[in-house]
Amino acid sequence: MLLSSLFSLHHSYCSARDIIQEDLTQALASVVDDIKEDLVKQDTIKAYRKLQLSSDTNMTIVLSDKRFCARLKNKNLRDKSFLTLSIVDEIYKDTRLGNNVISGDTLFVESKVSGEIFALRGYSRLSVASVLLISDQRISCTLAFMAVIWLALYILFFRKKYSPEKLHVFPDGTVSVNVIPDNSGLSYSEIHHSFMGKDNTPIHLTPMQEQLITMFWNSPTHTLSKEEICSALWPKKDNANETLYTLIKRLKPVIEDNTNMKITSDRGKSYSLVVRELSDAGTFVS
Predict the structure, then answer these.
(1) How does pLDDT run across 184-221, given as a tens digit for each residue?
(2) Which is it for the CA torsion 276, 278, 284, 286, positive or negative?
(3) Which of 18, 116, 236, 278 is most deeply packed, by most CB within 10 A?
(4) d(CA 117, CA 212)
(5) DSSP state letters, 78-116
(6) Are 266 and 250 in contact (CB under 8 A)?
(7) Alpha helix locations (H) across 135-183?
């Protein structure tokens, strides 16, 4: 939506520029059709010629013409617009003014009195911000507003689903989101840098046991295959099945004594960290 808003913003800006250019062109054409001989005084032409001969460069005269400004359809342009005039001769070049101006088309007018040909163009001093204010930005603003609302809702959802208490950085630098149920009695303390049991005290684990619990914790399903565990914990060992069996055997009572969870096995192919079910008597059973 944000990209659509930016695209709509650019499109509206270009459309507004085109409309301004058409307005400048039609206003100039209207003035030229009504007044041809009086548009440029003979004294102005003589002064123009002298300056051009002395400098030997293409000269452009800037005129603030009230008749031209009055014929602009957009009233916001009237106090920002002006005309430029050049005599078309052997050194004439069709040049445009610099930044922060928008120009219409060039009109060529021949004087019946002197036979001179004038190149006339209408301009309006407008910055990018001014054009944006003139343009119709309703669609882009609506899309931008929707994008902001969507972002705010997403942040609220993310905070609710993944609150700071559930985001943990482990000693090895990995970051995990705890999606283990709250009744598991298992949590991770960033203060103690240790897994905590149901009585909110650190669980004493060997480095290898802590690595394995971390792998269970990071797994979305909390299930790991034998191959995953062996390749992660003993990458250089060809056959680590017995080592894994011993590790699981020693870890099981630690988990069951300190949390409401247990480690289950699927025919020796994979292991899962699951929450024990609550019996009617109020005790956890496997």
Answers:
(1) 888 887 777 888 888 888 899 999 999 999 898 888 88
(2) negative
(3) 116
(4) 89
(5) TTTEEEEEEE-STT-------SSEEE---EEEE-TTT--
(6) no
(7) 138-161
Name the strand (E) or helix (H) holding 275: strand 270-275
Element (H, E) at 30: helix 2-34
Residue 20 corresponds to which tokens in the numbers above?
């301004």
**Which bin fits 125, alpha (ψ -120 to 50), beta or left (φ > 0)?**
beta
**Amino acid at site 230:** C
CB 192 within 8 A of CB 202: yes
Closest CA relative to residue 30, chosen from 64, 85, 63, 70? 70
Which 3 state secondary structure label does DSSP give 220?
coil
Predicted confidence band at 263 (pLDDT cuts at 50, 70, 90)? very high
d(CA 160, CA 282): 30
* Closest among 123, 143, 126, 125 to 135, alpha carbons compared: 126
Type of residue found at 161: K
Left (φ > 0), alpha (ψ -120 to 50) or beta: where does 268 sit?
Answer: left
Q: SS3 for 65?
A: coil
Across the range 31-56, mean pLDDT stands at 69
User: Domains in the chain and their CATH numbers?
Assistant: 2-134 (no CATH), 163-285 (1.10.10.10)
**CA-derived radius of gyration, the chain:** 40
